[in-house]
């Protein structure tokens, strides 16, 4: 995620509109059409604005306890028709419940909770993570 960790800051990443445009540009540059967007943690600042503006351009969405879920209303989430797998570890007692509270307003969602996994559930329980992800991907049209 630009501007986090050791990555250089990107001026357009300062606003939700800029972050949405940045992600749009990345997907265009990669030539991706109807990808499944997987969004762990800090990437929510990019993925959620994109989902709300361009969810119809995604085949699916997999939020993994993303930040920024409270920035949008239940009504905004209700408009999104993108199939969604809300995925998190049951030991993530901080961000995951907060994200779930907002993301459960997405009309086409299902939830997968990884037992014994923390915030980085894909690192803690990689086999369970991949099983849940592949199951979701198989159900997409």
Care to describe what's here?
The chain has helices at 16-29, 44-54, 74-78, 95-103, 121-124, 126-139; strands at residues 36-40, 60-64, 84-89, 109-114. With 141 residues, it is an alpha/beta fold. It has a single domain (34-138), classed as Rossmann fold (3-Layer(aba) Sandwich), CATH 3.40.50. A four-stranded parallel β-sheet has the order 1-2-3-4, with helices on both faces. Helix 1 (16-29) packs across helix 2. The longest helix has 14 residues, at 16-29. It starts with 15 loop residues before the first helix and ends with a helix. 33% of the residues are buried. The mean pLDDT is 91.
Number of helices: 6
CATH superfamily: Alpha/Beta hydrolase fold, catalytic domain
Cα shape = globular
CATH topology: Rossmann fold
Indicate the CATH architecture: 3-Layer(aba) Sandwich
First and last CA, distance: 29 Å
| Order of SSEs | HEHEHEHEHH
Strand content: 15-25%
**Number of separate structural domains:** 1
How many individual β-strands?
4
Organism: Pheucticus melanocephalus (Black-headed grosbeak)
Subcellular location: Cytoplasm
Main location: cytoplasm
Keywords: Cytoplasm
Briefly say what this structure is.
The protein has one domain (34-138): Alpha/Beta hydrolase fold, catalytic domain (Rossmann fold), CATH 3.40.50. Helices cover 40% and strands 16% of the residues.
Ordered list of secondary-structure elements with their pairings:
Blueprint: H1 16-29, E1 36-40, H2 44-54, E2 60-64, H3 74-78, E3 84-89, H4 95-103, E4 109-114, H5 121-124, H6 126-139
Parallel strand pairs: 1-2, 2-3, 3-4
Helix pairs in contact: 1-2
């Amino acid at each position: 995620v630009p501007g986090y960790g050791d990555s250089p800051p990107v001026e357009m990443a300062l606003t939700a509109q800029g972050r949405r445009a940045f992600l749009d540009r990345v997907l265009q540059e990669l030539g991706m059409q109807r990808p499944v967007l997987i969004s762990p943690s800090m990437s929510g600042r990019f993925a959620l604005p994109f989902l709300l503006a361009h969810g119809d351009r995604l085949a699916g969405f997999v939020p993994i306890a993303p930040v920024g879920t409270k920035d949008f209303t239940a009504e905004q989430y209700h408009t999104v028709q993108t199939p969604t797998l809300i995925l998190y570890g049951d030991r993530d007692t901080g961000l995951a419940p907060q994200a779930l509270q907002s993301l459960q307003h997405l009309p086409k969602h299902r939830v997968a909770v990884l037992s014994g996994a923390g915030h980085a559930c894909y690192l803690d329980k990689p086999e369970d993570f991949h099983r849940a992800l592949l199951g979701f991907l198989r159900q997409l049209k």
